[in-house]
Write a structure and sequence with these properties.
heterodimer; A: mainly alpha; 2 helices; disordered N terminus; B: Porin; 4 domains; 16-stranded antiparallel β-barrel; twelve-stranded antiparallel beta barrel; 7 helices; about 5% helix; about 55% strand; globular
């Protein structure tokens, strides 16, 4: 509900400079996070971090 | 989420130029931002066209085997390439390729440390040199079922209770997995849709997957709702380890096991359905939050077919006999049994805050997942993304993870029943049967008398054929599901790392990352008790990324700009390039020019075995292909070699270029027993089963300088002075099997030369109107007497000449002839190699080869991808004269891509 409330914030386009910076991207290092999640999912039992992209293979080691 | 009124209002104001702007700058900025595709969607990549290459190395530390010698820990080499391209202003195509090769020792089961098996050391001249996994063993127990300890090396009983567990490790020869993915996305002003799919292939596991997803933006893109659904189908065909299979109890899987080529293959399949919904919300001009909830439903075969559960069978008669002395439990390994259904729900939250004083961003994440196996997990992570100026960015990160054990996880199990006992009838007589006629039962009376069902004595000849009938344990008395896979245990893990990236000029970025990870059962929230499974690993990786921005490569700007003007502007530095199979064949012209390329080479050998230029019979190979002391027993049936090379070229001056080529190689081959081969000898390596061998990792690295000697209109000559650095491994081993070391894998399956090599070449190219031609002399001279495994590859000389004709202004066809002289391997392995076939003997390498190449070169003349070059060439052997005994050459393929900045 808190999100619903803040959904109405107004930030003009010229105020979005910081949000547009590369360091503010949801995933600033996609190559790194892909690699990390592959390693984690072969060593941990949580659902694959990138399960939406599918794949993965056995990790039978 | 309903759109906000304020958002609609703001959007309306933006569609017409804002009249209430506070100053001109704001007006200009906002006008620019409403151009299609430019209004920033917070938190989403701006979607530049890009190509990435990444190499990473995963290395585990040694497991704690309590004094037993540790086997080589698991390592994996991973090569990744991916790209995203704009097909139109709003449609993008993406692809990815990942290849990983792993090897090393993996846990196959867990047992009490106190068994007389487990990691059983083996000795050479009284010194412990390794350990073999012994899955079947005995353990002494007191009446409370506490194990009585043994020395881990001598296996002598120590007489005191020792409740520690240990993982039993088994080493594996290298194996490779390949995965390809494809995606298509389309972007509207306030929505996006994407479809993706791909497949992953490894010898024992094949999966295909597809997904569809989308995004809807509201509230002037301050709110985005995302959704995604995916499906994965996987087929398992696990080749059960030939060595350990006789010691594994597979009764639960018998209907799923088939026999192929001398191997037992456990088959299964599984399906995964995934659904995610999420929302990204900008909270302020410095903060945003991202929430996702995902559901995964899996059914089918979810076991790891190579992991077994150690079950300690105790005879209840012995346990309950009223005595107090020690009893013996029989440890038996059963393939693990997981539930066929799993439902998982994961909640992901991420908060990102811009830290003004540092121009940095703090990323905080928390993830909760729960499932019906009882594995509930918590993950906390924090990243600090710190730009440092001059294109540098440093990102330290830390992560903590904790999971509860699956409800069916146990390090090992007890079962109060006999594993196997001889069947007796109701008179107490032991039951026998005739293997030739299993339905007929016989009974033993007294010591040596056997009677049939009618009580008649049978004759001696028949009684000698009889076998005792055994009754196995009752599987119904075991739990329905059990696994000792330490990944299903409860534990915590702490990891930390750093990512450093540097943006170079011309849209080239370098990135490197390092992470150290440590798992400890004591770090579990609530604390666990499986510290025997603790381990650590590190991952190091390096990546190079290229932005291919159509707007900057087109002088007119915009995709609709005249392609003719681009052609004109670019044609002066695009000389015709040689066929794809030629290396170091062209140079850059202008100081400061930079070229990035990728080169793939595939080499196929197969079919007949050859001696010199002719087919050869098996018996000849047996007699002559190896050595008098050990005749050949095996021969290759095929071998594939694939080479991936990055081609990075820079022109510091007009007359000299420098070049760097990291390579990544992978190979696979299979063997067959030669007809007429001598029978297996105890203690000598055998190749058994349906599986071949695979290797793959970093190969040798080439670097060179190219010097222009002649450059007159229509004629160019340049010289290449190159060196090859021995970065590829030459000491890859086959795993130890059947108590016999595999030794180093064949010369041809090692990944590099192992020596520093000098690689000179001289190239002449000419062109006139639609015709082009050229010739190249090249060589490889090994600069060292031997590599660290004791041998060196032969030197090589090649002469080639070609002619090309422009079919259109962007497509050139070429024909090429090549002669290659390759020396045999010099010296020999100075470490153990199994010497089972001709590929293990140095004289069976090299020869003289005559080849014809048919090629196509294309340069994309205009549009978004203007300037990208592609080349393909098929190289067909015409005549071969092999040294010694070798597999026939079937041909090779060269494919190249390059782009000049």
């Amino acid at each position: 509900m808190g999100i619903g409330g803040t959904g109405c914030v107004n930030i003009a386009p010229w105020e979005r400079g910081n949000l547009a910076k590369p360091q503010m991207e949801l995933d600033p290092h996609p190559l790194q996070s892909e690699l990390q999640s592959h390693n984690y999912s072969s060593r941990e039992a949580a659902p694959s971090h990138k399960s939406s992209s599918g794949g993965g293979g056995c990790g039978c080691y | 989420m309903p759109p906000c009124q304020g958002g609609n209002h703001q959007l309306g104001a933006l569609e017409a130029p804002p009249v209430k702007s506070r100053n001109t700058l704001h007006a200009l900025t906002s006008a620019a931002l409403v151009l299609p595709g430019l209004l920033i969607i917070p938190g989403h990549a701006t979607g530049k066209d890009r190509i990435n290459f990444q190499y990473s190395r995963y290395q585990e530390g040694e497991r704690n085997l309590y004094g037993a010698p540790s086997l080589k820990p698991i390592s994996a080499d991973v090569l990744h390439g991916s790209g995203i391209f704009s097909l139109t202003d709003r449609t993008k195509f993406s692809f990815g390729y990942t290849q990983d090769t792993w090897s090393g020792a993996t846990p196959v089961t867990t047992t009490p440390l106190a068994t007389d098996g487990g990691n059983r050391p083996y000795f050479n001249n009284g010194v412990v040199v390794g350990a073999s996994p012994l899955l079947q063993s005995n353990v002494l127990l007191d009446r409370d079922l506490n194990p009585i300890g043994r020395d881990p090396i001598t296996k002598q009983s120590l007489g005191v209770v020792d409740t520690r567990s240990v993982m039993v490790m088994s080493s594996a020869s290298p194996e490779t997995r390949r995965q390809a993915t494809f995606g298509l996305s389309h972007e509207w002003n306030e929505a996006a849709i994407n479809v993706a799919g791909g497949f992953s292939r490894e010898r024992d596991y094949k999966s295909s997957f597809g997904s569809i997803g989308g995004r809807l933006d509201f509230n002037q893109k301050l709110t985005s709702v995302k959704f995604n659904g995916g499906y994965t189908h996987s087929e398992i065909g696990a080749i059960l380890d030939h060595d350990s299979s006789p010691y594994i109890t597979k009764t639960a899987y018998l209907p799923q096991i088939v026999s192929r080529g001398g191997s037992e293959i456990l088959q299964g399949n599984r399906q995964d359905w995934v659904a995610n919904v999420g929302v990204s919300q900008v909270l302020s001009k410095n903060a945003l939050v991202d929430l996702n909830i995902g559901y995964t439903h899996t059914n089918g075969f979810q076991e790891n077919p190579y992991k077994t559960m150690s079950i300690i069978f105790i005879d209840p008669a012995e346990l309950n006999n009223g005595q107090s002395d020690l009893i013996t439990g029989k440890v038996r390994a059963l393939i693990e049994q997981r539930p066929d259904i799993r439902n998982q729900v994961a909640l992901n939250t991420k908060y990102i805050h811009y830290i003004s004083p540092f121009n940095a961003a703090l990323h905080l994440g928390y993830r909760l997942s729960v499932d019906d196996w009882g594995v509930n997990t918590h993950t906390f992570d924090a990243n600090w993304v710190q730009p440092l100026g001059s294109g540098w960015t440093l990102t330290p990160r830390i992560r903590y993870y904790s999971q509860d054990a699956a409800s069916f996880y146990r390090s090992y199990l007890f079962s109060q029943q006999v594993f196997q006992k001889q069947a007796v009838d109701n008179l107490g007589r032991e039951i026998f049967f005739n293997p030739k006629n299993p339905n007929e039962q016989y009974f033993r009376e007294g010591f040596f008398n056997y009677v049939d069902q009618n009580g008649n004595l049978i004759d001696d000849a028949l009684s000698r054929e009889l076998q005792a009938k055994f009754i196995s344990f009752d599987a119904g008395k075991l739990p329905e599901n059990f696994s000792s896979d330490h990944r299903l245990a409860g534990f915590g893990a702490l990891s930390g790392g750093v990512v450093l990236s540097k943006m170079l000029a011309k849209g080239v970025a370098l990135e490197t990352g390092f992470e150290y990870y440590t798992r400890a059962s004591s770090m579990q929230i609530g604390s666990g008790n499986n510290s025997f499974a603790d381990f650590d690993y590190y991952v190091a990786n390096a990546a190079i990324k290229f932005d291919i921005e159509p707007t900057t490569s087109l002088p007119m700007g915009g995709s609709s700009g005249s392609s003719q003007s681009h052609l004109h502007s670019s044609s002066h530095h695009h000389h015709k390039i040689p066929p794809a199979g030629i290396m170091f064949g062209h140079m850059l012209d202008k100081p400061g020019d930079f070229m990035m390329g990728y080169r793939f080479m595939y080499n196929w050998t197969g079919g007949n075995m050859m001696q010199g230029a002719h087919n050869v019979a098996d018996q000849t190979i047996v007699d002559q292909g190896c050595s008098d002391a050990s005749p050949c027993r095996f021969t290759p049936t095929f071998m594939n070699m694939r080479m991936h090379m990055l081609d990075i070229m820079y022109a510091p001056t007009k007359w000299m270029n420098v070049m760097l080529m990291p390579t990544f190689m992978d190979m696979d081959m299979n063997l067959r027993r030669l007809s007429g081969a001598p029978p297996p000898v105890p203690g000598v390596h055998e190749h058994t089963g349906a599986a071949g061998h695979e290797t793959g990792a970093v190969g040798d690295t080439y670097f060179s300088s190219l010097v222009k000697l002649i450059n007159i209109p229509g004629h160019r000559v340049h010289m290449n002075l190159g060196l090859s650095a021995p970065t590829g491994k030459v000491d890859i081993e086959l795993r130890r099997m059947a108590k016999i070391d595999g030794g180093l894998i064949h010369f041809g399956m090692q990944l590099g030369s192992g020596t520093w090599d000098f690689m000179p070449s001289l190239t002449y190219t000419g062109e006139k109107s639609r015709w082009s031609w050229g010739t190249q002399l090249s060589g490889v001279k090994r600069l060292e007497e031997k590599n660290k495994s004791g041998y060196r590859l032969g030197d090589m000389f090649q002469a080639t000449t070609w002619g090309g004709y422009d079919l259109t202004h962007w497509l050139t066809a070429s024909v090429r002839g090549a002669y290659t002289l390759q020396g045999a391997v010099h010296r020999d392995f100075d470490v153990f190699n199994a010497r089972i076939g001709p590929m293990d003997f140095p004289a069976n390498y090299g020869g003289q080869f005559w080849d014809i190449g048919l090629g196509l070169n294309a340069i994309i003349p205009g549009g978004r991808f203007a300037g990208n070059r592609f080349g393909f060439e098929w190289i067909q052997p015409v005549r071969n004269d092999f040294n010694g005994f070798q597999l026939d050459r079937k041909g090779s393929l060269a494919a190249t891509w390059s782009y000049q900045f």
